[in-house]
Design brief:
alpha/beta; 4-stranded antiparallel beta sheet
Length: about 325
């Protein structure tokens, strides 16, 4: 990672309380959705955040944007601490920090036309008034590859790919610097996914955007991400430059994820060995002791259950949290 640090996350935790009782409720535990993650994102960079469903990556994205109030940790945007800010104090940062949601249909109000959906944040932040709002909406639609004649239509009249483009236009309406892309292509047909990813890359170049790109698998983030962080059960287990991670994954979980990515060469695909993980993802309400991955790890040793490894390696380089494999050098 090089360049000016736009977003810095340190030891971020997001624990949801588990309560019991009807009249008097008491906390009996907590779901550790995010359990102490740290990383930085430079201006103009894309950091891919990957992992299985339930590992906490979407929760992490929402906590960074203060859609959830973090249980602990620091979130610094352009050097300013935003974690814990109240609604009024957070308002100036809202237009600089935006999100593109996973489900393009659920994230759009079905009773709003495209013009109303995209124009609403423009009016709320006082960026345009009167007829200038409609002109701006037309510009944004053109920017994402849609026609201004679509402004009077409703979300149900569009395909999934078109709805996601509308969601992207809405996120861009307030001229943000940092966007959390929360699995923006997982609900789309494979034929449309590449189009949306190419659009996001083009917009990044044209507008100087910075992304946190959340996805299930390493295949989706391969081309768009500058660096990739692999997340398991609320923690980051490996982080590296994209090309380095694909060439030399070090953590057993990263190796398993990468082995699930299909290869275009059928001969190589048939010869390679798949890494199959045993069991299911443990509950974040009752995570395993030590290294959270040791219950499924094919190379786990007794020491793995006793102590949690720390993410280590060269500063701003390839870092891994594992007792078995050596730290990157």
């Amino acid at each position: 990672m090089s360049g000016e640090l736009l977003m810095e996350v340190r030891d971020l935790k997001m624990h949801f309380p588990i309560r019991e009782g009807i009249v008097v409720q008491r906390q009996v535990g907590a779901v550790r959705a995010v359990d102490g993650i740290s990383f930085g994102i430079a201006r103009g960079e894309t950091l891919g955040l990957v992992g299985e469903s339930g590992c906490g990556k979407s929760t992490a994205g929402r906590a960074i944007l203060q859609m959830y109030r973090p249980t602990a940790g620091s979130v610094r945007f352009r050097g300013t601490e935003i974690a814990g800010l109240g609604d009024t104090a957070m308002r100036p940062y809202r237009r600089r920090l935006q999100m593109i949601f996973q489900d393009p249909y659920a994230s759009l109000n079905p009773r709003m036309t495209v013009e109303q959906a995209i124009g609403e944040p423009i009016r709320m932040h006082g960026l345009r008034r009167g007829s200038a709002v409609r002109e701006r909406v037309s510009e944004l639609l053109e920017l994402v590859g849609l026609n201004e004649t679509m402004m009077t239509r409703y979300p149900h009249e569009f395909s999934g790919g078109q709805r996601q483009r509308i969601g992207i236009a809405r996120a861009l309406a307030v001229e943000p610097e940092f966007i959390v892309c929360d699995e923006p292509v997982s609900a789309l047909d494979v034929s449309i996914q590449a189009q949306v990813i190419n659009l996001l890359e083009d917009l990044q170049q044209r507008l100087g955007l910075t992304y946190l790109f959340i996805a299930h698998g390493l295949n989706v983030v391969k081309h768009i991400s500058s660096r990739v962080a692999v997340m398991y059960l609320g923690r980051i287990v490996e982080i590296a430059e994209s090309s380095e991670l694909y060439r030399r994954p070090m953590h057993p979980y990263s190796q398993a994820l990468l082995s699930a990515v299909p290869l275009p060469d059928p001969v190589v695909e048939r010869k390679r060995t798949r890494t199959l993980l045993r069991g299911d993802l443990p509950s974040p309400a009752n995570p395993p002791s030590g290294c959270a991955f040791h219950t499924r790890c094919p190379v786990a040793q007794p020491m793995c259950a006793a102590n949690a490894p720390i993410l280590s390696g060269p500063t701003n380089g390839h870092q891994v949290a594992c007792w078995i494999v050596p730290s990157a050098s």
